[in-house]
From TrEMBL:
The keyword Transit peptide does not apply. Belongs to the class-II pyridine nucleotide-disulfide oxidoreductase family. CDD domains: AhpF_NTD_C, AhpF_NTD_N. The keyword Cytoplasm does not apply. Residues 29-56 form a coiled coil. Serves to protect the cell against DNA damage by alkyl hydroperoxides. It can use either NADH or NADPH as electron donor for direct reduction of redox dyes or of alkyl hydroperoxides when combined with the AhpC protein. Gene3D superfamilies: 3.40.30.80, FAD/NAD(P)-binding domain. Its cofactor is FAD. Homodimer. InterPro entries: AhpF_NTD_C, AhpF_NTD_N, Alkyl_hydroperoxide_Rdtase_suF, FAD/NAD-bd_sf, FAD/NAD-binding_dom, Ferredoxin-NADP_redctase_2, Pyr_nucl-diS_OxRdtase_2_AS, Thioredoxin-like_fold. This is Alkyl hydroperoxide reductase subunit F. NCBIfam families: AhpF (TIGR03140).
Amino acid sequence: MLDANLKQQLNTYLQNIVSPIELTLTTNDSAKSRELADLTNEIAELSDKISVKDGNDRRAPSMAVGAAGEAPRINFAGIPMGHEFTSLVLALLQAGGHPSKADAELQEQIRSLKGEFHFETYISLSCQNCPDVVQALNLMAVLNPNITHTMIDGALFQQEVDERQIMAVPSVYLNGEHFGQGRMTLAEIVNKLDTGAAEKKAAELNEREPYEVLVVGGGPAGASAAIYAARKGIRTGVVAERFGGQVMDTVGIENFISVPYTEGPKLVASLEQHVKEYEVEVITEQSAAKLKKGELIEVELASGATLKSRSVILATGARWREMNVPGEQEYRGKGVAYCPHCDGPLFKGKRVAVIGGGNSGIEAAIDLAGLVKDVTVLEFADTLRADDVLVKKAESLPNITIIKQAMTTEVLGDGNKVIGLKYKDRRTDETHVLDVAGIFVQIGLVPNSEWLKDTLELTERGEIVIDGHGATSMPGVFAAGDVTHTPYKQIIISMGSGATAALGAFDHLIRN
């Protein structure tokens, strides 16, 4: 299972195990069980602190991880390779007594949770969002003996996926009931369980001293702005719903200059680490709700807290554009999806549609073609906007059909899941129905600026208008990245504009 290089890396990590752990292996006569058995035994051979015993879990193949002599509270139903290999490594280390790097206050909050919490998370091994959730819940299970967590590879347990009608990953169940879907941070999960946490946090934020520069948003633009501001030696804060923004959902990045290839989560981890090398106060799980100008600039948060600063940099980014047709919201996560890499494996052998003929849409169609029965691409215009090399690749695949001048008008479902969609042929005005189980929407971005309406000058598309210094129409307020009217939405451009906004804010401060 493990090549020599991976074994060497894993062996290095396993040296950090403090106390003995047991791996409880449940198998049947399937090929996947043999793979998991091989993986389990290879891991055990690398450390004298790891032992293996037979189990009788209701799911096979599965491997439970726990401290020796204790009932295991972490279980992997499936083979935790691909994106989930890191989840396995962390589970081994943490179950073996190696401390987590998670915030100490948050860890104590987890230990203090009262009640029985039995989590199950359905994932796909190609999902980039899933490991964050799996690792968060695994850590919670390590810290609190009343918490258990099982990762379930949906591709291996298709019957469960069908019974629970899971059509998007990660999907989390708590004590048998649906708990959440999509990317969730450790703090989000804990705060959802600890009902008084939000009020306590809001009260604490209200007491904070004003910043010199407050960055709203934690993506590449926000990270760059925070670093440039902090290097000036001024009090800097970052407030965001999550660190990384939309880059966390990006799979392959091949145009980040000097780095031939990386992936979104890896880049975000590097950005966060770089920001934390400076004295920057990072506040997550908070969304901005209102901007006000007084003696200081105030950012009101949805939680009820208010942060004050002498200058503000808005880097709230953008999100996937929705179709805005009947049925889309009703069947979101039930067949309507926005991440083909995450949710594609759940539609193996089924018919799907991709909405959008740009690079994202055609790349999605190509990726899905290797998994699903067939893909139909619907493009509103009479030509595809994707790069020619991608179009040629898509056209060469026998199970991809491209329909141009097609306007999606409705998502069709049976009350539980998507069963098709309606579209209008813009040339003939005829309405057609496609029988599909999944619809992947890839039609561009919408700036996260609704909360700024009637406060700043925005374009008709909702983008913040800035000058060459990143300044907005409100003195002391700057903006950067995809939320602005900068014409090209690229990571490297966002980073540059974040630096520009920070330097512009510093210039504003020294002149005022």
